[in-house]
Amino acid sequence: FKGGDTCEYLLSSGRFLGGKVWQPHSCMMHKYKNSEAKNCLIDKHIVFIGDSRIRQLFYSFIKLINPQVKEEGNKHGNIPFEDKSASIKVDFLWYPEVNSSMRQRIKSWTEGSVAKPHIIVAGAATWSIKIHNGSNEALAQYKINITSIAPLLEKLAKSSDVYWVLQDPVYEDMLSESRKMITNEKIDAYNEAAVRILNSSSRNSKAKVKVFSVSKLIAQETIVKSADGLHLPESSRDTNAMILMNVYCNKIMKPIDGSCCQPQPPLTLIQKLAFCFFTLSIIGYLIINLIHRNNYRKNKPCTDLEGGEEKKPAISTPNVSTLEMLLHSFCKLGLIMTYFYLCDRANLFMKENKFYTHSSFFIPIVYILVLGVFYTENTKETKVLNREQTDEWKGWMQLVILIYHISGASTFLPVYMHIRVLVAAYLFQTGYGHFSYFWIKGDFGVYRVCQVLFRLNFLVVVLCIVMDRPYQFYYFVPLVTVWFMIIYATLAMWPQIVQKKTNGNCLWHFGLLLKLICLLTCIYFLSYSQGAFEKIFSFWPLSKCFELNGNVYEWWFRWKLDRYVVFHGMLFAFIYLALQKHQMISEGKGDPLFSNRVSNVLLFISVVSFLTYSVWASSCKNKTECNELHPSVSVVQILAFILIRNIPGYVRSVYSSFFAWFGKISLELFICQYHIWLAADTKGILVLIPGYPMFNVLVSTFIFVCVAHEISQITNDLAQIVVPKDNSTLLKRLLCIAGFFSGLLIFSAMQDQSRH
């Protein structure tokens, strides 16, 4: 692929997604808000010079700065616009023909006495065709005139952004009698002349007049909706104005979802150090591998020619050493991180905007559900929320969330609300799983804590370094990490109440409930006291972990959105384990969880509750209002699902191995999607194979799943090395990790200082 300048693609090629959304070739276009447009164009002077079509573009452009502007005034005269708050000046100059008058105006900007505009957008031709009745002489004169103007525009291009807008096609059947001579054949001839003459004297120069030809492609699709056959419908010219804004502003504002015209970000000091580390790991592993191969050849068994038996070597092949396993893991991780960087930081692969349709979300959902049901197996145990069942639950939820992200379904509110329940269900499992472990095992040792923290955070820490992103950017990992520490602190602090202790005295149950009530009170207080929450997480070095864009608001929002569900998970685990201990539930194979009558009643209530929540979520009209209710009501559908899944004995005794396989790598799938399946930090879609959307998704998905699985294996291998069971060795490792993070904080501070 020829890679190259994405600005050129933005100005010259693209296609419509679903007939409404314009998708530039190979890159993503940002939708600028008024505030962003003003920040970009502050203290700038922009000039539109040309005919009525350029006037249309002028109005669409200034509406990006001030939507209240009305198209009124002298249509065949100059129109000024000024935004005093941002010192932005935009002028339309009425020059409907490329002639000496236009040349004189452009020439005045090249002279030192007059201030040059920062952006010049020019174009004209249809008036020349109309006035001269489409004669060949008019075309010849147009070529002469544009030849005289071209050097002036090229001179201006050295200090300003100069765009020449090619003429859009017309819808000939709708043209009035006075415009019948304006044919698409004539327009093509004028466009061809403009393209050939412009930049002819500066072929090898970087300063060129940018030819705005993408408008032609847009017009070809939309000119049939024109009111008069000549002027574009409003939606099309708004798209052209947004393209102009992206061409100029993306390199200034650097929006995440605006990859067009953005240069590749320079490598930071931390990224360079990471590159050196992974390179040394690869070299080290190759050296050790070569040494082992040579030793193997020297000690290779040789055949006894007389006896016909194989002689065994005196020295046996040694087992894989810790150092070799460490280097092997970092070698693989280094190659994988190179792929991450190439996909989402280097301008090597293409990126595209998401576009939601109901079919793009629901058809894949049906497909994976059929696959999941097809791979049904018997569980090893038939307890409520057994290991196979929770892996299955995580797996199908993760697949639905992945489809939700790649299809852009967040724009459809009912789907968004149901996905919020799936995220809440993950956190519910966090509360349920960790509470159950501490309650039953009573293991509050440092080893357990370090193992969990390492497995949760290893990949994210590596990505923060390699991809130059803050920890809070991968919001789900900070969320589950903090909730794990809250669960640990709640149960570990004095008095430690575990199942073994309650066996001797039932009153300890009330002590645990008191702890849970205190936890709920703290959650309630922090959720309604944004100031207190922000003070806690604004202390250095916590602020380095939880700040995003200079504040912790995003972290507060994410935490608040599912603030009660972990508590619900802990409470459910406590009640379930109490019922199990007192043999009030039946968990035999094929047996219903309760008596037939109670099971049927609970099953009916669960189904009604599940459907009621879905109806409520589907009737949501306002995301903000629904998000306010979500923390309190999401547990309804979660508990309903658990009961539906576990009350019938047969349903509890089977699981989908297909979903369970994905469930085992669900965390890696969730994190890896940011950069190697989606693109531009989840805002777009990675395009490895342009022109073939379905094939591209298949290939990128295959690589993405394989990488996630491999990272899961690497994390498990490194966890055994970095977090040993021996306490004295573990303490040394923790000191090394503390030193590593201290160095990371120092280098991060140096980077921030150099950026400012």
TrEMBL record:
UniProt-listed GO biological process terms: carbohydrate metabolic process
Keywords: Glycoprotein, Membrane, Transferase, Transmembrane, Transmembrane helix
Chain ranges of the NXPE C-terminal domain: 22-92
Membrane topology: Multi-pass membrane protein
GO molecular function: N-acetylneuraminate 9-O-acetyltransferase activity
Annotated TM spans: 269-291, 355-375, 395-416, 423-440, 446-466, 473-495, 507-526, 561-579, 599-617, 659-680, 692-711, 731-750
Pfam annotation, one family: NXPE4_C
Subcellular location: Membrane
GO cellular component: Golgi membrane
Residue ranges annotated for the Cas1p 10 TM acyl transferase domain, each copy included: 253-734
PANTHER family, sorted: N-ACETYLNEURAMINATE 9-O-ACETYLTRANSFERASE
Family under the similarity heading: Belongs to the PC-esterase family. CASD1 subfamily.
Record's protein name: CAS1 domain-containing protein 1
